[in-house]
Amino acid sequence: MIKAPDFLHKRTGKPGNEVLKKMYPGVKIPEFCEACALNKLKKLPYKGTLRRANAPGNTIHSELSGKISPPRIGGGNYYLKLTDDFSRFKSIYIQNKKSDTGAAIRDYVHKIERKHGNCVKVLVNDNGEPHIRKRKQIDK
């Protein structure tokens, strides 16, 4: 019994169409595989230019993930990963709710500023978009 072409494509390690046609003659091979197309992309979806930070704490990347299953000890369902662009140092904040993100970012920014003595200028969220923040916005 011959399996569906997309199953064969995945099962055999996603070879090209010519290889699949030789391996399984007579099976109609689909022309498009979304996973293969994504893997062949050369450009990132973000089109803006973002310069690398020239000092610790200038640019921070944030990534919020969850809902974690099963929840962590203490009930944390989400985690926020904050990465300093200059040093690549990462900090993880376990959170009970997504709405705790603002407080975690404020805490991190204050720690970075005390440690390095310079102000966080750019916060890049997990969509790759930079957000320039004024000091009073972070303090809210």
Automatic annotation (TrEMBL):
<dbReference type="GO" id="GO:0015074">
    <property type="term" value="P:DNA integration"/>
</dbReference>
<keyword id="KW-0479">Metal-binding</keyword>
<dbReference type="GO" id="GO:0016787">
    <property type="term" value="F:hydrolase activity"/>
</dbReference>
<keyword id="KW-0255">Endonuclease</keyword>
<dbReference type="InterPro" id="IPR036397">
    <property type="entry name" value="RNaseH_sf"/>
</dbReference>
<dbReference type="GO" id="GO:0003676">
    <property type="term" value="F:nucleic acid binding"/>
</dbReference>
<dbReference type="GO" id="GO:0003887">
    <property type="term" value="F:DNA-directed DNA polymerase activity"/>
</dbReference>
<keyword id="KW-0378">Hydrolase</keyword>
<dbReference type="InterPro" id="IPR039537">
    <property type="entry name" value="Retrotran_Ty1/copia-like"/>
</dbReference>
<keyword id="KW-0239">DNA-directed DNA polymerase</keyword>
<dbReference type="GO" id="GO:0006310">
    <property type="term" value="P:DNA recombination"/>
</dbReference>
<protein>
    <recommendedName>
        <fullName>Integrase catalytic domain-containing protein</fullName>
    </recommendedName>
</protein>
<keyword id="KW-0695">RNA-directed DNA polymerase</keyword>
<dbReference type="GO" id="GO:0004519">
    <property type="term" value="F:endonuclease activity"/>
</dbReference>
<keyword id="KW-0808">Transferase</keyword>
<dbReference type="GO" id="GO:0003964">
    <property type="term" value="F:RNA-directed DNA polymerase activity"/>
</dbReference>
<dbReference type="GO" id="GO:0046872">
    <property type="term" value="F:metal ion binding"/>
</dbReference>
<dbReference type="InterPro" id="IPR012337">
    <property type="entry name" value="RNaseH-like_sf"/>
</dbReference>
<keyword id="KW-0540">Nuclease</keyword>
<keyword id="KW-0233">DNA recombination</keyword>
<keyword id="KW-0460">Magnesium</keyword>
<keyword id="KW-0548">Nucleotidyltransferase</keyword>
<keyword id="KW-0229">DNA integration</keyword>
